[in-house]
Amino acid sequence: MNAAKVLDAKGLACPMPIVKTKKAINELESGQVLEIHTTDKGAKNDLTAWAKSGGHNLLKHEEDNDVLKFWIQKG
């Protein structure tokens, strides 16, 4: 998947992955994709709910070893 920006939030605990995701997505144009890498296990629920409430589209998420990867399209 072609992301306009990659956010490295590995090693950060809640709520920092969401805070950094919000800041990063504000720098994108509508329709662009943000790729997020985090090790915070709570991010799966947090980012899913955050994307939905913000009008963004969670395109995909996967787990690569201990790193959770998310692709969110800006609404």
Q: What do these coordinates show?
A:
This protein has 75 residues and is α+β, with helices and mostly antiparallel strands. The chain has one domain (5-73): Translation Initiation Factor IF3, CATH 3.30.110. The protein has helices at residues 16-26, 43-53; strands at residues 5-9, 33-38, 57-64, 67-73. Strands 1-2-4-3 form a 4-stranded mixed β-sheet, with helices on one face. A hairpin with a 2-residue loop joins strand 3 and strand 4 (67-73). The protein is globular and about 30 Å long. 24% of the residues are buried. Belongs to the sulfur carrier protein TusA family. Keywords: Transferase. Pfam families: TusA (PF01206). This is Sulfurtransferase TusA family protein.
The helix/strand class is alpha+beta
- The second-level CATH architecture is 2-Layer Sandwich
Fourth-level CATH superfamily: TusA-like domain
Mean pLDDT score = 96
Distance between the termini: 17 Å
Q: Main sheet: which strands, in order across? A: 1-2-4-3
Please give the share of residues in helix: 25-40%
How many helices?
A: 2
Number of beta strands:
4
Low-confidence stretches: none
Order of helices and strands: EHEHEE
Strand content bin = 25-35%
CATH domain fold name: Translation Initiation Factor IF3
Q: What's the assembly state of these chains?
A: single chain
CATH class: Alpha Beta
Total domain modules: 1
Keywords: Transferase
Domain UPF0033: 7-31
Protein name: Sulfurtransferase TusA family protein
Family: Belongs to the sulfur carrier protein TusA family.
